[in-house]
């Protein structure tokens, strides 16, 4: 039901945006106010199209294919605090002076490769860790401090 509404809203947004685009003569394309008051079509159409994107993402997320693809991400989420701290240690060691001091020296492509490498490292470590343990190390510590007693850490086999 909700997805149908989002689909309809997105269709309305696309219709509004296309009316704006197709009704302008080519000389007015870069200056929409020269051909009437159609700049509001973009103002009203863009949020509607954004809701359509939300609907599309929800459809993909609820599909069976997506649940198999997002399983490794769920593992990373179970160890969010530990992964955050790991990422902080790796990146400060790589970029700041107490490590390799590479801050400001990476190109955009090298930055993206670093992000992908750190993310892949977290996916691998999280999956391996959670085969043997119920929580990440810092999640376990946090729960131990919260409950004033350590929860069982190992996975029962």
Please supply descriptive tags for the structure shown above.
extended; 2 domains; 7 helices; 157 residues; mainly alpha
What does this protein look like?
The protein is mainly α. It folds into 2 domains: about 1-65; about 70-145, no CATH class. It contains 7 helices and no strands. The chain has helices at about 1-25, 40-60, 65-70, 70-80, 80-95, 110-130, 135-145. Helix 1 (about 1-25) packs antiparallel against helix 2 (about 40-60) and helix 4 (about 70-80) packs across helix 6. The longest helix has 25 residues, at about 110-130. The radius of gyration is 24 Å and the shape is extended. The two termini are about 45 Å apart. The mean pLDDT is about 80.
Give the structural class.
mainly alpha
Strand content: under 5%
**Helix fraction?**
over 70%
Largest sheet features: none
Global outline: extended
- Work out the helix count: 7
Radius of gyration from CA coordinates: 24 Å
Please report the total strand number as a whole number: 0
Mean pLDDT rating: 79
Low-confidence stretches: none
Please trace the helix and strand order, writing H or E for each element: HHHHHHH
Number of domains: 2
Report how far the terminal alpha carbons are from each other.
43 Å
Sequence-ordered SSE layout with sheet pairings:
Blueprint (H helix, E strand, L loop, with lengths): L1 H22 L15 H24 L1 H6 L1 H8 L1 H16 L12 H25 L4 H11 L10
Helix pairs in contact: 1-2, 4-6
């Amino acid at each position: 039901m909700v997805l149908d509404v989002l689909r309809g809203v997105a269709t309305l947004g696309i219709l509004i945006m296309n009316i704006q685009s197709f009704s302008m003569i080519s000389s007015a394309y870069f200056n929409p106010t020269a051909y009437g008051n159609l700049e509001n079509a973009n103002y009203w159409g863009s949020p509607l199209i954004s809701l359509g994107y939300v609907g599309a993402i929800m459809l993909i997320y609820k599909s069976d294919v997506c649940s198999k693809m997002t399983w490794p991400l769920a593992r990373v989420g179970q160890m969010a605090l530990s992964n955050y701290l790991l990422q902080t240690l790796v990146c400060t060691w790589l970029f700041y002076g107490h490590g390799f001091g590479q801050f400001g020296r990476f190109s955009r492509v090298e930055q993206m490769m670093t992000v992908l490498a750190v993310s892949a490292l977290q996916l691998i470590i999280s999956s391996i860790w959670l085969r043997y343990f119920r929580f990440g190390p810092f999640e376990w510590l946090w729960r131990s401090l919260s409950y004033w007693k350590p929860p069982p850490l190992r996975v029962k086999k």
